[in-house]
Design a protein that fits this description.
With 103 residues, this protein is mainly alpha-helical. The protein contains 5 helices and no strands. It has a single domain, classed as Cytochrome Bc1 Complex, Chain D, domain 2 (Orthogonal Bundle).
């Protein structure tokens, strides 16, 4: 019985992660693309390109983002990026975005 319960909880956790990964792109599109989409008409992309280099300008193209970093920047802000409260981007939405950008 305990083993079955543990396995069920483990599988539920895996399915939650899968949903988060699928939802992460949608949440990124909803909350992040106005500033961070590709193209030099997006202020976040411009700022990152100028401060971090062309290879790091577009968040979705990066392979060096870890979830804790993404969450910290979103919650605390950095340079021109404002901090976002949980009432603006929920913790679940932020978790999904951070996992999506993790690659």
């Amino acid at each position: 019985m305990k083993r079955t319960l543990k396995l069920s909880l483990f599988l539920l956790g895996l399915s939650t992660l899968a949903v988060q990964a699928q939802d992460g792109q949608a949440q990124f599109q909803k909350h992040c693309t106005p500033c961070h989409a590709p193209g030099m008409n997006h202020p976040g992309t411009i700022q990152l390109t100028l401060t971090r280099g062309e290879d790091n300008g577009v968040l979705e193209e990066r392979d060096n983002l870890i979830p804790v970093y993404v969450k910290t920047i979103v919650r605390n802000g950095l340079n021109a990026m404002p901090a976002f409260k949980p009432t603006q981007v929920t913790d679940a939405e932020l978790d999904a975005i951070a996992e999506y950008l993790k690659k």
